[in-house]
Design brief:
Strand content: 5-15%
Helix content: 40-55%
Strand order of the largest sheet: 7-6-5-11-12
Number of helices: 22
CATH superfamily of the domain at 404-581: Isoleucyl-tRNA Synthetase, Domain 1
Largest sheet: 5 strands, parallel
Distance between the termini: 36 Å
CATH class of the domain at 404-581: Mainly Alpha
Radius of gyration: 29 Å
Structural class: alpha/beta
Number of strands: 15
CATH topology of the domain at 404-581: Isoleucyl-tRNA Synthetase, Domain 1
Shape: globular
Length: 590
RNA sequence: GGCCCCGUAGUUCAAUGGAUAGAACGAAAGUUUCCUAAACUUUAAAUCCAGGUUCGAUUCCUGGCGGGGCUACCA
C-alpha cells in the first residue's frame, strides 16, 4: 500500500481508538514535509482542533507520540505550529526499493471499466496545425494513462469530412487546380487540399472587395460572392449524391487522409475506431422522434423541434429544423448513440476545445433528459486554445503554425543542439536521425502537455521551444545519464535489504519514487497529464542534484554502491515509463 | 445585453483551504584532473483592486477593473 495511505489509516486509527473520533481516512490531509523542516510527511492537525477541543500543537504532540508508539515504521516526529512532521523509517524505503526492483514498476491494480476517448477529430479541408497538436497529445496521453490504470480504452477519431468547408477547397480546386494531385505536384495531400482552401478564401476576399468598389454593401457581398454561391451549390449537389461531386469529394478526402496518416505516424499516435460525419450526420433524428413522444422535447408551430433547457440555466435549443433537416447537435446526439451501441462504454470522453463548452454541456443534458444509457458517462475534456503572442491562430489569415513544419523545426533544433554539444560520436547516421526525432518530439509533446489542459496557453514561435529546464529533453537527458551509469556498472547484485546511512537526498528520491503510482492515478482521474510532467521533471531534477555529491561507481563501499545503483535504476524505470505514458520516447544515449 | 472561463516574478508555468507562494526561461555570480556541463550551486524578482467567510485564502463568496470564449433553423 502507498505510504500516504498507510499514514492516513494510522492517523484514523489513532483518532478512533484514542479520541473516539471517527473519520474517513481519505479526508485526512497528509503532505510532503517542506524541505526546511525535519521529516518526510506532515499531518495538518488544525482540522481536528475544534472537534476534539484541543490546541493544534498539543494534538500534534499527542498524535505524534501515539503514531510512533504504534507504528514501528514511523521513527520520530516534531511539531511546529500545529504541523506534525513525521519521520519514516529508512527500512520502509529500502523494502520498497527491493520490492520495486523485483516486480518492475507500476503494475497497476486492474480496473474493468471501458472508456472511449475521442480526440484529434480534424476537418478534411486543411492540414493539422499547432492547436490540433495539443488536442492530439492530450488525447493520446490520457488514453495511455487510462490504459496504465487498467481501463479498457478505445481511441476514437471523428472525422469531419463533409460540409461547406470541404466544398470550398473543392470548388477552388475545380476552378484553379488544372487537375493537380499530390503525385503531380509532390505536395502532401492534406497540404494540397489546404492550399486550395486558402486559395478559396483569397478569391472570396478579392470578389468581395471588387463588389464593394462597385457599390454593393459589404454584408451583402459577403453573402453573395460568386465563389461562395458556387461552393454552396456544390454542397447541395453533394447532398443530392451527385456522382461527379461525390467522386471528387472522395478523391480529395483520400488525399487528406494519406497526408494525415503520415502526420499521425510521425506524431506516434493511433486510433482504434474512426467515425465519419458523412456517415453520422443524418443520425439522431429517430432519437429525437422518441424524445418528442416521451414529451421531453417539443415542436413549434413551424414544425421545428426544440428542447427547453431554461430550468438548467440555459436556453431553448433547436434540434431539428422546420423542414425536418438536421443541425449540428442532431448529428452529435446520433453519433453519441452510435458510439454507445458499438462499445457500451462506461465513460465517453470528448477532447474538444473550450470554445465548445456550451455545446458539450447541451449535448450531455439532452442525452440525460432522454435517459440515454450513455448519457452520464459523457465527459468533455475541455482544453484552452493555443494562442500566438499576436492572438488566436486563424487558418484563413494564414497565421497558423503548421504541425508538419513544427515537427521539422523541432527535429532540426535537436540536431543543431546535439551537434553543437559534440554529442554525435558513436552513433550511426540512422541512429542520429532517430535521436533527433525522439528529442524534437519529446520537446514538443512535453511543451504542450506540461500546462493544465483547462488553461489556454501562449506559444511564441520566435522564442520557440527550449531543450533546457522544465522540458522533455531535460527528463530524457536524465534518463540517458542513468543509462550510461548502469552500462558502466555492469551486472548488478540483488537489491539491498538494509542501508544504514541514507542521505537526505537519497531518502527524498525514494520517497518520490514511491509516489509514482499515485501520480498516475491522479493524472488519469483528473484528465491532466501536466501532473505527470511536473512529477517527472521534479524527480529528474532531484536526481540530477543528487548525482554530483553521491558517487555511485566510486562509492565508499559495496553496499552504498549497490543501493545507489538500484535507486538509480528505479528512477530510470520511472522516467522511461512516465515519458512513455506521455507518448515520449526515452533514449539510452543522447 | 445574458451565460461561462481566466488574471501569480520581466516571460512561460506550479501550488487537493495549510508552514516563509514553488519551478523554468531570461538577468547576475560560481562549479568540469570526478559516473554525460542538454547538468549542478548561489543571488535578485510575483498572488489585478476592495470587501467578506475561516484558526488559516493564490484557492471559497460578493463587488469592481482587465483579457478571452459562447450566445445562428452555420458546422
Amino acid at each position: 500500500m502507498l505510504l500516504t495511505n498507510r499514514l492516513k489509516l494510522a492517523v484514523a486509527n489513532v483518532l478512533k481508538n484514542n479520541y473516539q473520533f471517527e473519520i474517513n481516512p481519505d479526508e485526512i490531509l497528509i503532505s510532503d514535509t517542506k524541505p526546511e523542516f525535519e521529516g518526510d510527511y506532515t499531518l495538518v492537525t488544525f482540522p481536528f482542533s475544534k472537534p476534539l477541543s484541543k490546541k493544534p500543537d498539543d494534538l500534534g504532540q499527542e498524535i505524534g507520540a501515539l503514531l510512533t508508539e504504534q507504528n514501528s515504521w514511523i521513527t520520530s516526529f516534531n511539531v511546529i505550529k500545529g504541523f506534525l512532521n513525521l519521520v519514516i523509517a529508512e527500512e520502509t524505503f529500502v523494502h520498497f526499493l527491493a520490492s520495486s526492483s523485483a516486480r518492475e514498476i507500476a503494475q497497476m491494480e486492474g480496473r474493468t471499466e471501458k472508456i472511449m476517448i475521442e480526440y484529434s477529430s480534424p476537418n478534411t479541408n486543411k492540414p493539422l496545425h499547432f492547436g490540433h497538436l495539443r488536442n492530439i497529445f492530450l488525447g493520446a496521453a490520457v488514453s495511455n494513462l487510462y490504459k496504465k490504470c487498467g481501463f479498457d480504452v478505445i481511441k476514437a477519431n471523428l472525422i469531419n469530412d463533409r460540409g461547406i468547408h470541404i466544398c470550398k477547397s473543392m470548388i477552388a480546386w475545380m476552378k484553379f487546380g488544372n487537375g493537380a494531385t499530390p503525385q503531380s505536384t509532390g505536395v502532401k495531400g492534406d497540404h494540397l487540399v489546404g492550399d486550395y482552401y486558402v486559395l478559396y478564401n483569397d478569391t472570396f476576399k478579392k470578389e468581395v472587395e471588387a463588389m464593394v468598389t462597385q457599390g454593393i454593401e459589404k454584408e451583402v457581398a459577403e453573402k453573395t460572392a460568386p465563389i461562395l454561391l458556387e461552393a454552396q451549390q456544390l454542397l447541395r449537389k453533394w447532398e443530392a449524391q451527385d456522382e461527379e461531386t461525390i467522386k471528387l469529394w472522395k478523391q480529395m478526402n483520400d488525399w487528406v487522409y494519406a497526408g494525415f496518416d503520415v502526420s499521425y505516424q510521425r506524431l506516434g499516435v493511433s486510433f482504434d475506431k474512426y467515425y465519419y460525419e458523412s456517415n453520422t450526420y443524418l443520425l439522431g433524428k429517430s432519437i429525437i422522434e422518441q424524445g418528442l413522444l416521451s414529451g421531453v422535447l417539443f415542436k413549434k408551430e413551424d414544425g421545428s423541434v426544440w428542447v427547453d433547457l431554461t430550468a438548467d440555466g440555459l436556453d431553448e435549443k433547436l434540434l431539428l429544423r422546420g423542414d425536418g433537416t438536421s443541425v449540428y447537435i442532431t448529428q452529435d446526439i446520433g453519433t453519441a448513440d452510435l458510439k454507445y451501441q458499438d462499445f457500451q462504454m462506461n465513460q465517453s470522453v470528448y477532447v474538444i476545445g473550450d470554445e465548445q463548452n456550451y455545446h458539450m454541456q447541451v449535448l450531455k443534458l439532452i442525452m440525460q433528459k432522454l435517459h440515454h444509457p450513455g448519457a452520464d458517462g459523457i465527459h468533455h475534456l475541455s482544453y484552452g486554445m493555443v494562442e500566438l503572442p499576436s492572438g488566436k491562430m486563424k487558418s484563413r489569415e494564414g497565421t497558423v503554425v503548421d504541425a508538419d513544419d513544427m515537427m521539422d523545426e523541432m527535429k532540426q533544433m535537436a540536431q543543431k543542439n546535439t551537434e553543437e554539444l559534440g554529442k554525435i560520436e558513436g552513433f550511426t547516421e540512422d541512429e542520429l536521425q532517430e535521436l533527433y526525432q525522439t528529442l524534437g518530439m519529446g520537446a514538443l509533446k512535453f511543451y504542450l502537455l506540461r500546462v493544465d489542459p483547462k488553461k489556454k496557453m501562449i506559444f511564441n514561435p520566435k522564442e520557440s521551444i527550449d531543450f533546457h529546464g522544465f522540458t522533455g529533453p531535460f527528463v530524457q537527458y536524465t534518463h540517458a545519464r542513468i543509462c550510461s551509469i548502469l552500462r558502466k556498472a555492469g551486472a548488478i547484485p540483488e537489491a539491498p535489504t538494509t542501508y544504514v546511512h541514507m542521505t537526505k537526498a537519497e531518502k527524498k528520491l525514494l520517497q518520490l519514487t514511491e509516489q509514482y503510482e499515485q501520480v498516475l492515478w491522479q493524472a488519469s482521474l483528473e484528465f491532466n497529464p501536466a501532473n505527470l510532467c511536473n512529477y517527472l521533471f521534479n524527480i529528474a531534477q532531484h536526481y540530477n542534484s543528487f548525482l554530483p555529491n553521491h558517487p555511485i561507481l566510486k562509492a565508499e563501499d559495496e553496499a552504498i554502491r549497490n543501493f545507489r545503483l538500484h535507486l538509480s535504476r528505479l528512477v530510470k524505470h520511472i522516467l522511461a515509463d512516465g515519458l512513455l505514458a506521455l507518448g515520449i520516447k526515452a533514449p539510452q544515449r543522447m
